[in-house]
Amino acid sequence: MPGTPIVNGTSYVTVEAYSDASFQKAAEFYAKFLELDSTKKSDTETVLFNKLVTVRIVLVEDAARQQAADQQLAALEALTDTQDWRAHFNQSLVFKTTSIVNLQHSLNKLHIPHQVYPSTLLPMELYTVDPLGNVVGVTSTKNSVSSKPTDRNLSSEATAVATALQTGAKTSREPSRVHSMTDLSYRVGTTDSHPSLPKQMTPAKANKAIAVMTSGGDAQGMNSNVRAIVRTALFKGCKAFVVMEGYEGLVRGGPEYIKEFSWEDVRGWNAEGGTNIGTARCLEFRQREGRLLGALHLIEAGVDALIVCGGDGSLTGADLFRSEWPSLIQELQETGKITQEQHTRYKHLNICGTVGSIDNDMSTTDATIGAYSALDRICQAIDYVEATANSHSRAFVVEVMGRNCGWLALLAGIATSADYIFIPEKPASDGDWQKQMCDIVAKHRARGKRTTIVIVAEGAISADLTPISPSDVHKVLVDKLGLDTRITTLGHVQRGGTAVAYDRILATLQGVEAVNAVLESDADTPSPLIAVNENKITRKPLVESVRLTKSVADAIKAKDFKKAMALRDTEFIEHLNNFMAINSADHVAPKLPRDQRLKIAIVSVGPPAGGINSAVYSMATYCMSQGHKPYAIYNGFSGLARHESVRSLTWKEMIGWQSKGGSEIGTNRVTPNEADIGMIAYYFQKYQFDGLVIVGGFEAFESLHQLETARESYPAFRIPMVLIPATLSNNVPGTEYSLGSDTALNALMKYCDVVKQSAASTRGRTFVVDCQGGNSGYLATCAAICVGAQASYVPEEGISLDQLQEDIASLAESFEKSQGRTGFGKLILKTTNASKALSADKLASIITAEAQGKFDAKPAVPGHVQQGGLPSPIDRTRATRFAIKAVDFIGKQQAIIAGVRAADFQFDANDKAVEATASVLGVKSSHIRFTPIRQLYDNETEISKRMPKIIHWRETREIADHLVGRKRVD
Ligand SMILES: Nc1ncnc2c1ncn2[C@@H]1O[C@H](COP(=O)(O)OP(=O)(O)OP(=O)(O)O)[C@@H](O)[C@H]1O
Ligand SMILES: O=P(O)(O)OC[C@H]1O[C@](O)(CO)[C@@H](O)[C@@H]1O
Ligand SMILES: [Mg+2]
């Protein structure tokens, strides 16, 4: 916003200069750096100021101090790249700013060297050194979600300095002085020349030109990846380029194919399908001549780093390109195509891969960009097909994409509870597959299923590598089982439409991380591939990932299917085992011996969330496959206490539950204490439950805690108990993901896409969307990333009037800039509880009034639409995974608790092993973990707020802000 001071905070600082020359330079420096006006009071005093900050410079001639200061500057210059130079200085000034980003931009323009911390996309502190030798820090950390620099990025000493910067406290390293908002007087050094700063302070890295391309088959989410890369590159002070048409664009070169992009060029891309920069399968790039041209064109365009978003093939190409780079540029120089200078400048090709492919066939990452969107399209199609199949009692053979990889077929099989799947990694021999399929289909039909769904991956084969086509399968179903059968080939519909929320977020976070990775790489850093493991964005060596991926295909070709499976990630194998277990649920030949079979109850507590039915279905069918007896407690604990609503679940009644929304066994918010815990214990004893699975959100969390606490009094609760988190608020302590949150996020995102489109069609229109989530801003924050909302307000931060004013001003500014442009609609998201006083309606009125006719705002309230109807494939498949893990947990914990169950004198509730038998299942970082409820309840929960103490997604807020250029007020 023009006129807004770049720094604020009521700081008044006096610095001393020891020579006239340094006195002059300091005045110039502060005027530029902090955008201050200056008044020369006398030959020995200059005052620089804006509304909020005053810097007073006084000249105190002193040769000895001058010399000391010179030495200090020389020491600073000697520091290396890897050193955290803040830790080597003992004097500093600190100011606050609303936007480090803007400050960084202006310093880049002024060519004033600086460093930012932490060294991620989320700079919260910026440092430079003034001509007097003072370290000058500017921080944006004050709002409740921004975090301190982490140990990951800072040495412990530097962390102490950073902490002190934020708290105003002194560090133990005397005579460090860190101040803010006070009148300070410093002993400062001076030099006759402007200090030439140490290497690592120069913004050399941020001067890079970073190019991105999309390659191979297009995938939903590629546009979000490109958007994030372009904007992060610009945000970091780099130039951003896009290579059009994949490797084809590299081979052709020139500004038509290698284009510089601006912030505005990627506006609105999150909601667009396919890839807007084009993609291709380029034969020429497979040849050295093609890659030689590619190298030349990159150098001609001045590109330092290339980020390739593509599948296994594209990244194989990228890997080859990087390994060949030295010889390519050698040849270019020898043939006079590039100069010696260019050869030196572009000596190392900095490459990074973000995996974009619907196939999800890249090793070392759990998900590729686009895979879950394609899965969404497949599941939607199969859900549709189910309806017609059911009407005619028909069988459908559905062909899905995936040349060498069965991930789509497998996950779709789980998500739609298909009868049989064909995937290339685990083929049966000819003769066997026909029998296996017919046995299972016939069994399901005999149990009363009217539909049959068989999913065939494009690359399906039998054990002798003969392709299995949908017609082969069709023939068997007709000839052997006499089923009325149809074939549906989904084809490119799977790559159609816009990305699901998961892909938009994955693509965005990976884009941000890819830029970080290339900026942090040097000649010796192996090219990274940006992966995701469970919920965590990670970096993996590209070469190794490509090698592993190739070896899967090689193993399949060599008929070594065991190896092929082993080379797929562990989650793939787990999914396959899960599919086979629940799909072959068998009363006749269960897996476990009689003495290990258990009675396991499941209950749902709290409001409905996508995936509850899938969890119940998977838990029950898995129990059946093992030999356990699954029971449902209908209508929560109140149902049990009042009506003894317990029934063992049958296979037939659960047909179709995997894909259903809501909760078939009923749910409510009543906890055991509210319902009557004595009655509940009585029924637990009556039914002799050996284990309990609770599915739900915060009330379910409270329920588990109550039951665990009641173990002292009621032996019936001395059984393994586990909570599967399921709530759209995603606020259950002990997990970073709750079932239902993905379904809700997609529902909210689709709603936002629609209103944003409406906003874009109406000149000067903003919608204020009211989001659910209780006291958790998770949903609003993630949706803000998915739809590129201008701002989001969440309960963790509340709504400050200053911030609101800032957001309105920035809306005004962007609407003004957008004059004459189309497709320019804005969204503001607000969690209902972000402010009780400011409803979406009121907020919209305030914005409209403040806009003074330049634009307007309307409220939009999706309400319970956010519960989402049908559960998303992510919620369905994760529900299955969680349910099976929960049942296994109960099985494993039996031994620990069974011995002490009955005898009071042996039961010690404080025994750690016993305590751990009542746990919350959660995704934490990149693992599934069980955490004892007692530990979570006592140490990790803000009970009154119904929230975990640590907000795992808080960094995401800053990314959301940065990608739309939102300025933050303290
Ligand atoms: N071994 C290789 N050497 C050089 N370039 C390659 C190589 N493999 C693939 N490429 C380049 O990458 C492009 C895309 O590869 P491919 O067609 O295998 O798709 P992909 O990236 O695996 O994506 P998807 O499988 O999702 O469609 C190829 O057209 C080619 O230009
Ligand atoms: O669109 P094309 O070039 O026909 O490619 C289809 C192939 O691309 C993929 O969709 C991967 O993107 C494969 O699953 C499929 O075999
Ligand atoms: Mg591929």
UniProtKB/TrEMBL annotation:
* Cofactor(s) listed in the protein's UniProt record: Mg(2+)
Which keywords annotate this record? Answer: Allosteric enzyme, ATP-binding, Cytoplasm, Glycolysis, Kinase, Magnesium, Metal-binding, Nucleotide-binding, Transferase
Binding positions for beta-D-fructose 2,6-bisphosphate per the UniProt entry: 669, 727-731, 765, 772-774, 858, 864-867, 946
For the region Interdomain linker, give the residue spans.
Answer: 585-598
What EC class does the entry list? transferase
What are the boundaries of the region C-terminal regulatory PFK domain 2? 599-970
* Positions contributing to Mg(2+) binding: 312
Q: Where is the active site?
A: 359
- Which Pfam family, any one, appears in the UniProt record? PFK
Q: Which family does it belong to?
A: Belongs to the phosphofructokinase type A (PFKA) family. ATP-dependent PFK group I subfamily. Eukaryotic two domain clade 'E' sub-subfamily.
* The protein, known as: ATP-dependent 6-phosphofructokinase
Gene encoding this polypeptide? KNAG0I02440
